[in-house]
């Protein structure tokens, strides 16, 4: 069912383009807002308008939001390179390769962790939306490393709470451009969707609180290997925070990395690896810890840097 909304333009949006105003009001990308306007689903004071028209505070908006499309259902499909590190009746811990997302999602036709587990005969918890069953946290498609998935309902609710309460230890290694100063520090800066609506995230006033702790492990001529401890778990958090302090992850062209350096090191994605995951087991109540070694592309780039430095 479509969703019809009527409201006046708030004072804070006075003078904004119509597509920007709609995007901000409804948390949409600007592209999606422009599509709604082009489809005739937006009226300003009862009349159709163009996406570039400027809005006046108090003008009346009528918007029809079509129902969101349903994400694809999970399907058993083996994921090459995905390794099950640990499994018991309640949890399964996987080492995720690059090019794999956590669960099926609109616009993604590649492999997913949920599909790979189904193919391996692992039954996951059925809590949550059908397409993301058992998923209690996520890694970006091109971030490698450790992910825990809930198999039982008790594990699902317990792990969801643990991630929310920040009792899960999530440690990453990142190769970033240049040398952060100081060599160890904390980045405490709120994150939200980038105003451009192009899928990026950014440090935005009024965004969700986000805290990243980093320590330099090794410094090379053009880059530094960092250990990163995440206090919060926002989408793209490490990538956004490192870019915000002008030290983007090597290979992360979405967030301003130098493509020449990445090419020289043979890195075709962001250099970011979830190396350690520790939490209290949801039914055994003991602390469990898992570690993962670097995948081949990341290890090779470090060899090149060490040989040069």
Automatic annotation (TrEMBL):
GO terms for molecular function: RNA binding; rRNA pseudouridine synthase activity. Residues 16-72 form the RNA-binding S4 domain. The keyword Kinase does not apply. InterPro entries: PsdUridine_synth_cat_dom_sf (IPR020103), PsdUridine_synth_RluA-like_CS (IPR006224), PsdUridine_synth_RluC/D (IPR006225), PsdUridine_synth_RsuA/RluA (IPR006145), RluA_PseudoU_synthase (IPR050188), S4_RNA-bd (IPR002942), S4_RNA-bd_sf (IPR036986). Its EC number is 5.4.99.-. Belongs to the pseudouridine synthase RluA family. The lineage of its organism: Bacteria, Bacillati, Actinomycetota, Actinomycetes, Streptosporangiales. It comes from the Bacteria. The keyword RNA-binding applies. SMART domains: S4 (SM00363). It catalyses: a uridine in RNA = a pseudouridine in RNA. It comes from Thermobifida fusca TM51. Keywords: Isomerase, RNA-binding. Responsible for synthesis of pseudouridine from uracil. The active site is at residue 140. Gene3D superfamilies: Pseudouridine synthase, RNA-binding S4 domain. This is Pseudouridine synthase. GO terms for biological process: enzyme-directed rRNA pseudouridine synthesis.
